[in-house]
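User: Working on a comparison across species. This one is NADP-dependent aldehyde dehydrogenase from Kribbella steppae. Can you predict its structure so I can line it up against the others?
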Amino acid sequence: MIPDTTPAELEQALADAAAAAPALGASEPAVRAGWIRAVADALDAAADELVPIAMRESSLPEPRLRGEVARSSGQLRMFAEVLEEGSLLEVVIDTADAEAKPVPRPDLRRVLVPLGPVLVFAASNFPFAFSVCGGDTASALAAGCPVIVKAHPGHPELSVKTAEVMIEALRVAGSPAGTLGLIQGFDVGVTALKDPRITAAGFTGSVPAGKALHEIAVTRPEPIPFYGELGSLNPVFVTQAAVDARGKDIATGYVGSFTLGVGQFCTKPGLLFLPAGHGLQEQLTEAAGGVAEAPMLNDRIKEGFSSGLDRLQKVEGVRVWASAGATLLQTTVTELLARRDEILEECFGPVSIVVEYDGLDELRSAVDAFEGNLTATLHAESSDTELAGELLPLLTARAGRVLWNGWPTGVAVSWAQHHGGPFPSTVGSIHTSVGVTAARRFQRPVAYQDTPDAVLPAVLKDSNPAGISRRVNGSVTTGEVSR
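Assistant: Here's the predicted structure for NADP-dependent aldehyde dehydrogenase from Kribbella steppae:
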């Protein structure tokens, strides 16, 4: 059993992170990229040691976990490349213009700088990709912030081993001591969140826990940004034309998506809206019945799923279509609207609800029923152009990622990705926790006005010694600046 971090150990971790912040923040992009790339290489090299521990603590299969290691090291390398290219700093230079109207313009040079030490609350359902070496840690390090990770109790030994691998890689590569730290224990995490040396926090977990931690972060004497990913139902809406064209494929794709990872993905489609008379019940129940039962991440999550499923099954108007390895429930839009709060409460695990709508007015009402989500999906055909044109803006208002004829499970790590959404899916819908712009959560802009070249940060100097991309007087260039 891994013991909780002691008060003395927590103080040391906080002090080390605060001491590392100036040097880490001042590091040149290419140097920081080298540190991050070293961590990626070390994770790949340690996979044979780390994956068996993850299998034992999470009950997840080896291929899934090895894929997570590759995802984690891959996104670290992506951030390294972006640092070297320069876009992560968003450098903007407007040179002085005495002829500017209505008044002369001074020389202005804007760059993103790191906030400082970041506290990351690791998630349970992705022991690598959203844990110690996950996206929050990777993006904060890329931003130039020291990171303290509060380990998830679902995989404590893996957290320790992963942190050891990363810290050693950072040490050998030459990063400041204190660049990464690990703490254990619920109360320890709360104490760290309240500490004035912590400048931002990232969280992935339940709505109640996320709301409680968010309240702590924003009511501190000096409030800090708290980027929480909380809960999401990820509704999928299907038109009659789509049912007619590929109903069977939609049925099997849906079941495959909501049961992926034993239904323990934050992007699991929790509801599938089908037109009344769809004729897909047999295909849906057959597909759900063919799903093999598998262990969940831990006893706490299993107990939460069992109680949530029991609650859902007792809601008036909700019927059971399948209940073997996966549970498939059914209701109608009329019944959903009558018991909205009961039906639209997330149940984390292998269960989803088919909701039948009668006509376009009910379909519109169904879309209106939702709060914020990470994703919303529309399955439609080319003949649905007018309807899609009406529905997509409604889905856009309620989700951070809108899918067309796809399934929301699986979140690509890329420049354009957005993994976030209106509350309660996140508490910061303008930011993503996946992709290049995830680093933006842990940066703030600073503009230097009429500052001599000799004292400017290297990335703002006229000569552009790092050769990064900069927007100069409106145009992107890697060239020098003439004053």
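For your comparison, note: The chain has two domains: 7-230+428-446+455-460, 236-404.

User: Helpful, thanks.
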